[in-house]
Structures are given as C-alpha cells and as structure tokens.
Design brief:
Length: 497
C-alpha cells in the first residue's frame, strides 16, 4: 500500500499511509482508538472504494472497490465484531454464500459442507463440531469459527481485527498458535490489537499508526514496551499500572462461604478500604458470577456478605447500592450505559435524587456536578450533551465508572474495566482505579488480562471450577504461577489471608 488516504467528509481517517505485507509473516498494526487501523484495513478489504493512493498485490497495481473483489484478489477480513449467524451451524457459517452443491442440481450438500469444515478445522488444529449451532459455542469458539471462515477462502492476506478482545489468557495462547501456524504456511497476516503482550508474542513486524498517519515500522524484536507505547500515544506514560503503595484501612467487604450453585461455592475473602483485590479465573471459573452475586444480579444460596462488619442481605442491585456496593459490568455498551442518552444524563442518572429540588432536577447543579466529574476523570467530549454512544471506548468506560462517583460507593467492583480500549485509555483508567483506592475505596478488580491483575492488585484471588483456588500478595507470583493455579495444573494453597 502506497500513500493510501481515506477521508470521511472533512475528517481524514487515514493520511498517506505506506504498508508492506510479506508472505509468511505476521504484521501487527497498532495505535490508539481512532488512529486509523481498522479504516486502513477496510480499504484493503474493499469496504471503501473512494480512497486515494495505490495498492499493489504481487507487484501488480490493483484498484479495490468491493469486498467481493478483495476476496477474489486473496484478501480476507475477520471483523472485530463477530459476524456469524447464531442459528446456523459451524459448517453453514464457514461456507455461507459459498455453499457446496449436491449432485442434485439446486440443492446444497450439508454433508460436503461439514466434511469441508472438519478438514479445515483439523488443518488449523481447532477442535470444533461442524454440525454444532454457533449459538451454543463460547465466545472463544466463535472467534475460531470466524478465523476458519476467513481461511476457507484460501486468502493470501488474512486481516485479524482485535481477535482476542473477549478471550481468556489460555484462549489467547491457542489463537496465537493458530495465527503462527497460518503464517508458517505462507500467508501474510495483519494482526490488530491493543494488547502489547500479544503483539510481542505473535508479530514479526510492527507498524504504529497515530492520528491517521504511519509513525514507524520496525521488526518486533526492536521494540520495547516503552518505545511502542510512546510511538502509539506520542508521549511517555509513567506507568501502564500506576498502583501506589497500599495503605489498607478497615475491612469493608467480607464474604464468608458464599455460594451460588452451580456457578460457585464456599467462597471466602476480605477487601479492605484502600485496597485493590484482583479476581482472576478462566471462563467458567465463577469469577463474573461472584461479582454479580455481590451486586445482587444473582441470588446467593449459601453463606453471608458483610459490609463494614455488619451482615447484609442482597437480593437485588438496589440492596447492594443501599449498602454502598457498586458494579461496572464487563459489557459496558449493553449493561453499563444508556447509549442513546447524553453523557450528562448517563453520569447523573443514578444520583438524580441528590440533584432534585422540590421534586424537580436542578439543571444548574446537575451541569456543575457533571462538569466536576468530567474534569476529575479527564473525560474528552465535545460537550455534556453529546450522545454517549458516539464516544470512544475509553471515554465510555470512564463514564461507566463516573456514574457511580457522584454519590461514591464504599465498595467498587470493576468487571473487565479495560476490555477493548487502547493503551493510553487503559493507563488513564488504571490511574482512576489507583486514585479511588488511595482515597479509601475498597476495589475488586475482575480481569482476564494477567498483566493488569499483576500490575494493579494488592492481593490476587484465583478462582477455578467455582472455588477459590489460590490467594497471593502483590509481587509474590508470576503470570505462569497464576495460570498454573487457574488451570489446575498444580495445587496451590492460600499463603495469605
């Protein structure tokens, strides 16, 4: 690609970018949200015909004006948002639009489709039932189906846009293996991700985009985490994980033998004010179910919850809120925000009773309180009235946290607070978490990202098969140690309580 430019009206999303892709290599494309990564790849995949610049395939100039043409030229794009049809089978999704026909004219051969899907999955080292309906698959399995679908057209260039945003550490390792295998068979792979550990694990070369322009391209071995972050954001980040030394106060939250079958059972732990406790586990371990039970989204059937030493009953979110417990859900768009409403309304909605005078919302006070939050959280938005769905993922996540802070809780549970946001926004969210803990809030951090768990937690709880399998203090365990406990490779005790 030479001098490729794509504008939307007066906004230039991609500005004269050069990019070389080589057969047999994984080329990582990184940058903050809005840097132009996905737009550049959608040009290559034929979604934008009105681009400027030149594209060459095998040295031959081509003009790509439609996805069908891009596929014919050997380019396949696996989208960030899964595009499978849940009601169809794995095989039907893989060959959708390219179904094999039977010997009877006009009829599709289901047997041939399933045989082709099985051969494809076996070749990739993927264990999937071709006849299984996609709606019964996990998110990780669906992502593998997407990749198999892309590979089924035998592309020379395979573009993976944020392929691991919803996967666990173990599932990411499996996906990295598949990607390296594909590159080893002579395909050029473009790998878009915000996760630096993945970039260094999978990439041969790395290109950084910032504000629509190419900043640098170099072999992955020449980059360090610090140099890559600096290239992406244009400034030095003092730390991706700015956790201050903990000064724990009294016990805010105590859980005793809590159970919610079949999700988890007999879970006991404490969280003190001023402390960040990380909660890690693989999919199905019960970590999210535990967070939801603490907030009243699930009904516990055993054990007890204590807040500030007093036993409380939590049957619904309203009960949790009344006892000073707040939760930011892992799916911020569907469960954490009201997308069609303004930033102001999303930030103030929970605290409206505090903003009312004589039964009516005091608009001036609401605007002032929202302005205070926007300033405190460094929320970047054109105005308070902007629709929250138009904001970046990082800004939306700040809004999800901010909606609890007009009337601050004593205990804040954060479920995947940095999923799908860029590295600069991650550092800012981490700084917010650190500040809240420093101010005395008890924080429970639920995350599938091990660097985040290790970097931000004062103590780490590891769940496996619905039970608490291990507990560690900051600095006494590695990523491999946590994975060993989470996967049940070896037994682990609880060295500290």
């Amino acid at each position: 690609m030479r001098g490729v430019t794509k504008a939307f009206g007066a906004t230039v999303a991609v500005d004269a970018v050069d990019l070389d892709l080589t057969a047999g290599e994984v080329h990582a494309l990184v940058g903050e949200n809005g840097a132009g990564k996905s737009t550049l790849m959608r040009v290559l995949a034929g979604f934008y015909a009105d681009y400027a610049g030149d594209i060459f395939i095998d040295g031959r100039p081509v003009r790509i004006g439609h996805p069908r043409q891009a596929r014919a030229l050997g380019t396949a794009l696996v989208h960030q948002e899964l595009s499978l049809v849940p009601e169809l089978s794995v095989a039907e999704n893989i060959f959708l639009g390219r179904e094999p026909y039977s010997l009877v004219p006009g009829f599709i051969s289901q047997r041939a489709a399933e045989a082709g899907a099985r051969a494809l999955c076996d070749g990739l080292g993927i264990s999937l039932d071709p006849a299984a309906r996609v709606l019964h698959l996990s998110v990780a399995e669906r992502q593998l189906v997407e990749i198999a679908k892309g590979v089924s057209a035998n592309p020379r260039v395979l573009i993976l846009d944020e392929p691991t945003s919803s996967l666990t550490y173990q599932e990411v390792r499996e996906l990295v293996r598949v990607v390296r295998s594909l590159a080893g068979r002579g395909r050029a792979i473009v790998y878009i991700s915000h996760k630096l550990d993945e970039i260094f694990a999978v990439a041969d070369h790395v290109t950084v985009l910032r504000d629509g322009r190419r900043v640098a391209t170099a072999p992955a071995a020449r980059w360090t985490e610090a140099s890559l972050v600096h290239a992406m954001v244009g400034r030095d980040l003092s730390s991706l994980f700015p956790r201050s030394p903990a000064d724990p106060g009294p016990v805010r939250l105590e859980v005793r033998d809590l159970g919610c079958r079949p999700a988890f059972r007999a879970v006991s732990f404490q969280v003190r004010g001023g402390e960040v406790v990380g909660l890690y586990g693989l999919i199905g371990s019960g970590r999210t179910a535990l967070a939801e039970a603490l907030f009243g989204l699930r009904a516990a059937d055993a054990g007890e919850i204590r807040v500030d030493g007093r036993r409380v009953t939590i049957r619904a979110p309203a009960d949790a809120i009344s006892h000073g417990i707040a939760l930011t859900p892992e799916d911020r768009r569907r469960r954490g925000l009201i997308p069609m409403l303004s930033l102001r309304t999303n930030l103030s909605l929970r605290a409206l009773p505090l903003l009312c005078r004589a039964g009516f919302v005091d608009g001036g006070r609401e605007r002032a309180e929202v302005a205070r939050l926007i300033d405190a959280l460094a929320i970047r938005a054109a105005s308070q009235s902007v629709e929250v769905s138009t904001l970046s993922g990082g800004t939306q996540q700040k809004a999800v946290i901010g909606r609890w802070l007009m009337a601050p809780p004593r205990i804040l549970i954060l479920d995947e607070p940095t999923r799908g946001i860029d590295v600069g926004a991650k550092a800012e969210v981490h700084a917010i978490i650190d500040r809240l803990a420093t101010e005395g809030m008890a924080v429970v951090l639920v995350s599938s990202e091990l660097p985040e768990i290790l970097g931000m937690s004062d103590r780490i709880l590891v769940m496996r098969d619905g039970e608490l399998a291990g507990e560690f203090r900051r600095g006494e365990v590695t990523e491999e140690g946590i994975m060993t406990v989470a996967a049940g490779v070896a037994a682990a005790g609880r060295p500290h309580v």
